[in-house]
Amino acid sequence: MYSLTDAAMVQLGQVGSALVDTGADTLTPPGGKVIVAISMMTDCQFDALVADGDDVYIGTGGSGSGTNGATLGSGDTFPAGMTIYGRWTSVSVTSDGQRAICYMGD
User: Fold this and answer.
1) 11, 32, 45, 104: which sits with the fewest CB atoms below 10 Å from its CB?
2) Direct distance between the N- and C-terminal alpha carbons of the chain, in angstroms, rounded to an integer
């Protein structure tokens, strides 16, 4: 059981992080965890950004919440310095050299 402060920190990625930087690899969080934030170190495009609920979070498989949202395509670029928040079960970039830090949460 987490305290109120610890529970808030967990949702902000305080249970670990990992670097994704190789187009051929897919990053998946450890068991029972999801990726809650992704910070782009370089301009990034995603082969896979698999949401933990395509009807809630944006990803390559669905448009997330709202009306008339679009599904991400492999040509959509997130600029260096941008951080996105949500819940994803796996992430892969389109090519080597694209770098992003993925933060894990519950």
Assistant:
1) 32
2) 12
Cα 54 from Cα 10, distance rounded (Å): 22
At residue 2, the pLDDT reads: 61
- Identity of residue 20: V
Q: Per the structure block, which two tokens stand in for 92?
A: 């892969």
Q: Say how many CA atoms lie within 13 Å of 98 toward its Cβ.
A: 22
pLDDT for the residue 10: 53
Strand partners, 34: 105
Q: Which domain holds residue 21?
A: 4-105
Q: How many domains does the chain have?
A: 1
Determine the residue type at 15: V
Q: pTM for the full model?
A: 0.86
CATH of the domain at 33: 2.60.120
Largest alpha-carbon pair distance within the chain? 41
